[in-house]
Amino acid sequence: MDRILITGGSRLQGTVRVSGAKNAALPILASTILGGGECRVTNVPAVVDVVTMGKLLGMLGASVKIEGNRAAVGVEHVHSTEAPYDLVRTMRASVLVLGPLVARWGEATVSLPGGCAIGTRPVNLHLAGLAKLGAEVAIEHGYIRAKATRLRGARIALDTPTVTGTENLMMAACLAEGTTVIENAAKEPEISDLASFLVKRGAKIFGAGTDLITVEGVSALRGADHEVIPDRIEAGTYLAAGAITGGDVCVEGCRPEHLEAVIVKLREAGAEVTEKKESIRLKAPRRPKAADVKTFVHPGFPTDMQAQIMALLCVAEGTSVITETVFESRFIHVPELRRMGADIKVDGNHAVVNGSSHLTGAPVMASDLRASAGLILAGLAAEGITEVSRVYHLDRGYERIEQKLRGLGASVNRVHGTAKGAAGAAAGIPS
Ligand code: EPZ
User: Fold this and answer.
1) Quick check: 166 and 190 in contact, CB under 8 A?
2) 272, 308, 346, 422: least buried by Cβ within 10 Å?
3) Tens of pLDDT, residues 154-201
């Protein structure tokens, strides 16, 4: 398995361009199932999850061409309506084909995604919403089996503003008979991007981006072209990289309005942040200041930036309290940061971070996509070499992260396969 080696201490400087948003590209690609006609999607991030979604669509019978940051998908017909366990277990977002398959083809058999490192990740709200739309939904042998002759519009009140749940139900409602209202809908920018793509294809969707989404069902959707919005979490990650190294970083091709809560916290931690229409520049003090952070659904502080801001606060002056309100166990990166000298105490969904003047490089293990990013950021600030293993987590959602960080002056390299761990060797630890 690949490892990433970081030699800390470089102050990051320069400009980095973000890729398209993984969490917009995935539902947009899944939504191609809803209609015939070719969909040409640009600014698609070249990440593993997009390749996986392309494979899934191909298995269903779609014609899929993904090259670089462009995808062309046509779903004139399907020869399967099943998303198998072997694929779904590698990417939970596969569940996004559920709503489109039932809406257009009247049936779907999708493996239950199962939990992951950050939580149990239930999909009960997806299923309850589909049942409200008139689908017969059953769980058998670890699979969701859903069918409906034709979905009927309904009023759906979500207990929790689930992001992919909102997306699944909004997509299904596009082809339902009558009007659907989704209350307590998630408001993430990725949902608005999905809606704008669906509207280009003839869907009638109102209120995406608010907590009340209304969908008037139509009989069919056509193909359309679409450019995916920039990845706000990738942008936030590079801003945090600038902040943790006392650097001066400009992130280009992003939407500052998608990152307001993150910008507020970076300013509170002492950074000078300048926003332009499609770029954000961050100038950081040598050492950040402590700040309390509470993750929340959009437009609150994104849970997908929690590990990254924790890494920053590990070297801040003072004590910070981080509260994770979205997922029940999203502190897996804490023991790994402790191995680097961080002083963090976890109590339930709170983490108390006593900032220390420096971290030391160490061999650490990634556990999920965003925890991996947090460990890399810590490595950028640590003395010596940090070796992050299991970087396949990282490759799911960050396009060319080593190259982008090197472009900012970081000393970051990928070691392929089983080469002896340099950090472990440096620390006299047998590999
Ligand atoms: C999406 O996951 C993102 N993934 C996640 O990003 C992100 O962390 C999450 O939203 C929160 O912002 C994609 O968009 C592909 P949720 P999702 O349903 O939709 C509970 C990344 O790193 N819930 O909004 O699965 C759930 O347990 C990934 O890119 C139910 O109880 O998250 C959680 O506590 C990680 N029942 C909360 O809602 C349900 O049916 C939020 O989950 C669904 C969710």
Assistant:
1) no
2) 272
3) 999 999 999 999 999 999 999 999 999 999 999 999 999 999 999 999
C-alpha–C-alpha distance, residues 71 and 25, integer Å: 10
Rounded distance from Cα 121 to ligand 1 centre (Å): 7
- Cβ 224 vs Cβ 201: under 8 Å: yes
Summarised one tens digit per residue, pLDDT across range 264-290 is 999 999 999 999 999 999 999 999 999
419 C-alpha to center of ligand 1: Å?
Answer: 35
Give residue 325's identity as a one-letter amino acid code.
T
Tell me the backbone φ, ψ of residue 227, rounded to 5 degrees: -110, 125
Q: How many angstroms separate the first and last alpha carbons of the chain?
A: 13
Distance, in Å, from the CA atom of 34 to the CA atom of 209, rounded to the nearest integer, reads 21
Q: CA Rg, the chain, in Å?
A: 22
Mean pLDDT of 380-408: 96
**pLDDT confidence band for 120 (50 / 70 / 90):** confident
Q: Is the CB of 160 under 6 A from ligand 1?
A: yes
Residues catalogued as catalytic? 116
Q: Is the CB of 397 under 6 A from ligand 1?
A: yes
Over residues 133-164, the pLDDT tens digits come to 999 999 999 999 999 999 999 999 999 999 99
